[in-house]
């Protein structure tokens, strides 16, 4: 009986460790948010009083997930400050809820909240081409 309990515990643990299903991310996702910004870039134009003073910028943003193959997704984004399309690449982790990714000058960490809602966090360091530093976390929703 003791061995049966151990085997059942192992089987239950193994089944819960299996990868979750990968969400379908294709479509257009939009949100509104605020970023803390040092310097300037295409999505955050303007300047602060000096180099050591950050700005808080409000913005609208759009992500178009144009393609997805399994846990890999790609597309482009633009914002209310810049209509230029910036490409991105994302990868969904085995939990089916955590997403990491990158664009031309920064990185993403996303969390799937529901089928049509995600939290997006974005950063880019001062080593980016614009030399600006940006950080934000905002909710975004899939357009229906």
Number-wise, the strands total 8
Sheet with the most strands, sense and barrel status: 8 strands, antiparallel, barrel
Shape: elongated
How many helices does DSSP assign?
1
Task: Give start-end ranges of low-pLDDT stretches.
Answer: none
Return Rg in Å. 19 Å
Q: What topology, given as strand order, has the largest sheet?
A: 1-2-3-4-5-6-7-8
State which percent range the strand residues make up. over 45%
What's the CATH class label?
Mainly Beta
Average pLDDT over all residues: 85
Distance between the termini: 54 Å
**Which structural category do the helix and sheet elements fall into?**
mainly beta
How much helix is in the residues? 10-25%
Describe this structure in words.
With 144 residues, the protein is mainly beta. It has a single domain, classed as Lipocalin. It contains one helix and eight strands, in the order αββββββββ. It has one helix spanning 2-17, and strands spanning 27-38, 55-69, 72-79, 86-92, 98-103, 107-114, 117-124, 133-142. Strands 1-2-3-4-5-6-7-8 form an eight-stranded antiparallel beta barrel. The longest helix is centred in the first third of the chain and has 16 residues, at 2-17.
């Amino acid at each position: 009986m003791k061995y049966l309990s151990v085997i059942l515990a192992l089987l239950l643990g193994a089944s819960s460790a299996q990868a979750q299903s990968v969400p379908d991310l294709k479509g257009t996702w939009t949100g509104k948010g605020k970023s803390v910004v040092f310097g300037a870039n295409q999505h955050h134009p303007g300047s602060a009083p000096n180099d050591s003073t950050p700005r808080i910028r409000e913005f609208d943003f759009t992500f178009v997930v144009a393609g997805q193959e399994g846990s890999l997704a790609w597309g482009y984004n633009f914002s209310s400050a810049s209509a230029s399309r910036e490409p991105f690449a994302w990868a969904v982790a085995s939990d089916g809820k955590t997403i990491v990714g990158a664009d031309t000058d920064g990185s993403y960490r996303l969390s799937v909240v529901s089928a049509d809602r995600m939290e997006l966090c974005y950063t880019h360091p001062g080593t980016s081409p614009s030399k600006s530093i940006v950080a934000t976390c905002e909710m975004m929703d899939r357009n229906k």
